[in-house]
Write a structure and sequence with these properties.
Elements lengths: L6 H12 L3 H14 L7 H26 L14 E6 L5 H8 L17 E7 L2 E7 L10 H9 L2 E7 L4 H14 L2 E3 L4 H7 L2 E3 L1 E6 L7 H10 L6 E3 L8 H10 L3 E6 L12 E4 L4 H8 L1 H6 L2 E6 L2 E7 L10 E5 L1
Parallel strand pairs: 1-3, 1-4, 4-7, 5-6, 7-8, 9-13
Antiparallel strand pairs: 2-3, 9-10, 11-12, 11-13
Length: 329
């Protein structure tokens, strides 16, 4: 059966044969795969491209291990107040969002499958920073198993869909692939999580490319058609529309509190909070400040919504977001 390949395929294939670096070859192979039509006549070609892609990625990973240890490219060192993975299909705009929201400079291209390894960046939200991790395109045919391990380690997952390219199908496929790897939105059933060991984390679906008010109606239609546990939020990597709403959702679902130290006789530094998990106590704070405070604490005073100003509290006092604490030793 004839393959009937489009002209784009042959152009990309020519660039692939001329490519010298492994990263360039991998990116071009992924582009070639993406333009091959799906039918019986291309089954062998698609399988061959997957084998080549798998071999090149393994060779690149082995080379990195040989050069500098055994750390996987999918292990991103955690920084900031939390870590959120950007997940989605090719051309949904994950890299563009990372570039727009952080100081990172990932390669952003209209060509699909430009990102083939995770890339981190720090997103400022009020007086903290949250680490965003751009990930390779989510594709059932050659998705890396380590990608799901990365998501499992994150505090949140931001599911990116292209509002102008069948976003409902993209979102449903993304949730299905995550579900097959025991990853699901935190809004799901906790009982099910216990039974099948599903890792449930806060997930937000971002309908990217809602660039102007003209696209707002498209988002409204998507909301009417979608009936799932993952909340929806419009966003535009191009214009920055709805970035404030995105950041506030991320902050609200990190499960943290920000606490400010007040040195005796001085004003607290409200620009540099101590970031703790919700439910943390004064005792937990002392461990983070310095071991001397943990070992020698005499008492603590708190200013905040959970107590009257300057109230003396015990080590087991549960801290609230925005609390100001004075520790005495």
């Amino acid at each position: 059966m004839p393959t009937n390949l489009p002209p784009d395929y042959y152009e990309i294939e020519k660039r692939f044969r001329e490519a010298e670096s492994s990263s360039e070859k991998i990116a071009l192979l992924e582009q070639m795969y993406s333009v091959v039509p799906k039918h019986k006549g291309t089954d062998h070609l698609r399988a061959d491209l997957r084998r080549q892609l798998s071999r090149l990625k393994e060779e690149a990973l082995s080379a990195r291990r040989h050069a500098g240890g055994h750390t996987s490219t999918f292990h991103i060192e955690r920084e900031g107040a939390g870590q959120a993975a950007l997940i989605g299909a090719a051309n949904s705009g994950k890299s563009a969002l990372l570039a727009a929201l952080t100081n990172a400079e990932p390669e952003v291209s209209p060509a699909p499958y430009t990102t083939w390894k995770p890339a981190p960046g720090m997103m400022p939200i009020e007086n903290i920073q949250v680490q965003l991790v751009d990930t390779p395109a989510l594709d059932r045919d050659f998705v890396e198993p380590e990608l799901f391990d990365l998501v499992r380690r994150c505090d949140q997952a931001l599911l990116i869909v292209d509002l102008q390219a069948d976003p409902l199908a993209q979102l449903e496929l993304t949730l299905r692939l995550l579900g097959e790897h025991r990853l699901a939105p935190a809004q799901g059933s906790p009982a099910q999580a216990t039974e099948d060991r599903t890792r449930r984390i806060p997930m937000l679906a971002l309908a990217n490319k809602c660039d102007t008010s003209e696209q707002d109606e498209d988002f409204t239609v998507l909301c009417e058609l979608y009936d799932g546990p993952c909340p929806l939020q419009p966003v535009s990597a191009l214009t920055g529309r709805f970035f404030d709403g995105l950041k506030q959702w991320v902050l609200a679902h990190l499960g943290i509190v920000r606490v400010y130290a007040r040195p005796p006789g001085k004003e607290p530094d409200l620009e540099r909070p101590f970031v703790l998990k919700q439910g943390s106590t004064v005792d937990d704070l002392t461990r983070k400040v310095h071991k001397d405070f943990y070992e020698k604490l005499k008492y603590a005073r708190v200013w905040g919504g959970g107590a009257f100003d300057g109230q003396m509290v015990q080590r087991d006092y549960i801290l609230n977001d925005g609390d100001i604490i004075e520790l005495r030793i």
